[in-house]
Each structure stands twice: as C-alpha cells, then as structure tokens.
Amino acid sequence: MSVISIEDVKKIASLAKLEFSDDELKDFSEQFKKIVGFVEKISELNTTGIEPMVYPMENKNITREDIVKPSMPNEEIEKNAPEFNNGSIIVPKIIEY
C-alpha cells in the first residue's frame, strides 16, 4: 500500500486552496491511504478479455434537439444587473491566482 503522508495532504490542500487543522490533516491522510489502497486493489483485477468501455451501461448519452429560443432583451438584463458595460454584466472578482 502506498504511503500518504500528512505533508502530501498539506500539498494537495494547498493546491486546492484549502486549510485544515492538524486533526483534520491526520484524518484526511488516513482517508487518502484507504482510497489509494482501494485503487491499488482494483488495479490488480484481471481484465483479460474484457473490452474497454466508454459507458458503464448500455445507455448512451440521451440528447435533445437544440432549439433556438428568444432570450431576455439586453435592456431588461441591464436593468437587473448591478453593473453593465458594452453588453456585458460586470461582476466582482472572486477567484485569485
């Protein structure tokens, strides 16, 4: 079984912009170990003679016809938007990178 250290969990949390307490890091480390162990167990399965599949069931994507419908007029959108400029709604920045 692969070893998932608390440092590994800290790195993953940092990449996801998440912060955890020491107790949470320990819990997540144990959970990750179980998940990786499960994936390793699955990789041991003998799949000889089994064809790869895109869908796990026989049903394929069920799609609907793409029908163009009228949308809300820009004037109505502009009335309801906090800020509007050149046909675009201006919103505050929420993602930092």
- In one word, what is the shape? flat
Spans with pLDDT under 50 lasting ≥5 residues? none
Spatial strand sequence of the major β-sheet: 1-2
Query: What's the CATH class label of the domain at 6-43?
Result: Mainly Alpha
Helix content: 40-55%
CATH fold category name of the domain at 6-43: Histone, subunit A
Description of the structure:
This protein is mainly α and 97 residues long. It has a domain at 6-43: Histone, subunit A (Orthogonal Bundle), CATH 1.10.20. The protein contains three helices and two strands, in the order αααββ. The chain has a two-stranded antiparallel ribbon with strand order 1-2. The radius of gyration is 24 Å and the shape is flat. The model has no long low-confidence stretch (mean pLDDT 87).
Please give a handful of descriptors for the protein shown.
97 residues; mainly alpha; 3 helices; 2 strands; flat
